Amino acid sequence: MKRKKNRIVLYIIILLIGVGASILFFMRYQRVTSNMLTCVEAFSFDTSVTNAMTIGDDILISTSDGKINLLDSEGKTLWTKDVGSSVFSLEISSDGKYVIIGAVEFHVVDVAGKEIFKKGMEDHVSFKSKYLKDGKIKFIFQSLSDLSLTAVTVDGKGKTLQTEKIDDLGETCFIDISSSGKILLSGERGEVYIIENGGFTKDANMDTKVSTIHTVFGYFFGDSTIVCGYRVSYDPEKPIPVYFFDENLTIKKTLYFKNINDISLYDGVIVFSTKDGIVAYDENGKEVFAIDELGFQGFSYLQNGTFRVCVFFKRTEGENADFVYKIDLLDAQNKKIGDYVYSSDTIPQLFLAANSQNIYLIDKSHLKLISKD
User: C-alpha 277: how far from its chain's center?
Assistant: First the structure.
């Protein structure tokens, strides 16, 4: 009898342990899944997507057939415009009221899709555009016969105010435009030029022994800093220099990275997504924050006034290897709100809504919405 009682007690203990373990597992599962972001397909296009950008909480998307579509977060089409050729760039004005569409010609439209004006140049292709801080717009066109450039500054209605001719430098250049209208040319041979009013005002040189050509970049950063360098090293294990110049192209600081996958600029920070993770710096080259993910490389970084998105990736092993992407949604203090992991055989585009935590993901011709329940 005593042995029977002991057996019953033992069964009860085992049962209680099992119930407790189940409760702990459920609680842990709840904590894990509560951090997961959800992903739903919002829209599918007939042709491939060439460019996109967010306007408020909506997303403006261009496709290879020359169509521009503004969609809301549910995939509803708000307006459509056909510019007749593939679109290579989209840029919104600082007041959020107008968009420059870069195609064979530049088209300036309001956010309702109404065309204000268009600007083209005979025997030239559209190359770069920028809204300036005084309300003007600067367009850059490249000649079809050589690598010479023509910069045209217009007012808000498209009237030409200034034309600048830039001779063929004999090399492919990365081009950026400052908010005051200065032009930065970063050449594949390592030459860096600042151009103002059609004249070369400053120049500098970068070390070309560390990198392959055609991966050069150069950006105006803030009011008095220029950041230039290369994205890819000859030797994948050898760090490459990134130069922080002042406005006179004097080096303020040099940083070293392994291959750079993406670069993004926001107010006060320039963010590099690299082989080792994601790291941000201020105008003096001082580190602001760094975020990494074990086993992943940094892919891209996004932010708005409230949220940040860090995207990481790695390549799976095997014959049919895919990329695995991990998308982390953070608050302004870099505290994680949620994450989402998915695989793809292509390189996606990601965009963060301006006023919410909605993340738009474009994979091939599919638009997906990633959000927190």
Answer: 15
298 strand-pairing partners: 312
| Interacting residues of 90 by C-beta distance below 8 A, sequence separation 6+ | 51, 52, 53, 60, 62, 99, 100, 101, 102
Answer yes or no: pTM beyond 0.70: yes
- Amino acid found at 314: K
> Secondary structure of 74-115 in the HEC alphabet?
CCCEEEEEECCCCCCEEEECCCCCEEEEECCCEEEEECCCCE
Rounded Cα gap, residues 203 and 305, in angstroms: 35
Neighbours of 94 (CB within 10 A): 11
Q: Are 315 and 297 in contact (CB under 8 A)?
A: no
Both tokens of 62, joined, read: 């261009």
- pLDDT(5) > 90: no
Quickly tell me which residue has 């992407």 as its tokens: 325
pLDDT tens-digit readout, 238-275: 888 999 999 999 999 999 998 899 999 998 999 999 99
Residues 6+ away with beta carbon under 8 Å from 191: 169, 171, 185, 203, 204, 205, 206
Instruction: State the virtual CA torsion across 359, 360, 361, 364 in degrees, nearest 10.
Output: 180
Q: Which tokens go with 203?
A: 């120049």
As a whole number of angstroms, the distance between CA 117 and CA 94 comes to 18
Is residue 31 within 8 A of residue 17, CB to CB? The reply is: no
Which two structure tokens, joined as six digits, stand for 265? Answer: 């600029």
Q: Is 313 helix (H, G, I), strand (E, B) or coil?
A: strand
pLDDT of residue 234: 78
* CA R_g for the chain: 25
According to DSSP, the residues that pair with 311 across neighbouring strands are 300, 327
Q: In terms of residues, how long is the chain?
A: 373
- Element spanning 18, H or E: helix 2-34
